[in-house]
Amino acid sequence: MDTIRVVLIEDHDLTRMGMRTALKQQEGIEVIGEAKNANSGLKLLNSLQPDVAIVDVGLPDMSGVELTQIFKDSEDADSPLATKILILTMNDSEDTVLAAFAAGADSYYMKDASIEKLADAIRVTHEGNSWIDPAIARIVLQQSNSAYDEPNAGSKSSTVTINSLSPEESEFLLAYPLTTRELDVLRLIVDGCSNAQIAEQLYITVGTVKTHVRNILNKLSVSDRTQVAVRALRAGLVS
Q1: What is the pTM of this model?
Q2: H or E stretch including 177?
Q3: I need a surface site. Which of 7, 11, 66, 224 has the fewest CB within 10 A?
Q4: Are the C-beta atoms of residues 172 and 220 closer than 8 Å to each other?
Q5: What is the 3-state secondary structure (H, E, C) of 122-141?
Q6: How far is C-alpha 141 from the geometric centre of its chain's CA atoms?
């Protein structure tokens, strides 16, 4: 397995040192650089070109969202060496979450989760998928749907965009569209329902729910339920 090269951009010294020390214990992950502000972080990203950059939202000179926007705008998105951005924050406000993904963030990780989950998030992000807490996914979906329902409700809603699916992903969905029942299950997954809760609401067995979930994962080309919400958002499958 290739080593995942990681850069940490975090202004809090203890947090940054703690992450660096903890990630050293994780197999297949190497921290190759650190920065405590956005400007130094951008220079580091351009010089080292890491696989994944962990970027704190609350940087002193500019926000992590602004850093993400600047870096993504300057990067060749089609390059196989493109750096993935994993936003790190305690902030789960609607505006911040939506702005991060609009800026091009690949994943959104809450600081109160475990280091093992951070390592998982790094691996998932490096593989080209999105790590996102289900509660955060619901916030993004709700805000996105409001923007679609009220396109003229104000400049803030009308200017926010979310990364769309790639042409290959769109073609795959056209070839293997979700059924009406799978869309029902998808909406409940995004709402954070368990298989048992989905079965109860749709009056079907848990076994049938599992079959639908497996089909949804296959059709959306994702490996777990947390990635389902992001893919559903980008594809516009949930309204």
Answers
A1: 0.62
A2: none
A3: 224
A4: no
A5: HHHHHCCCCCECHHHHHHHH
A6: 12
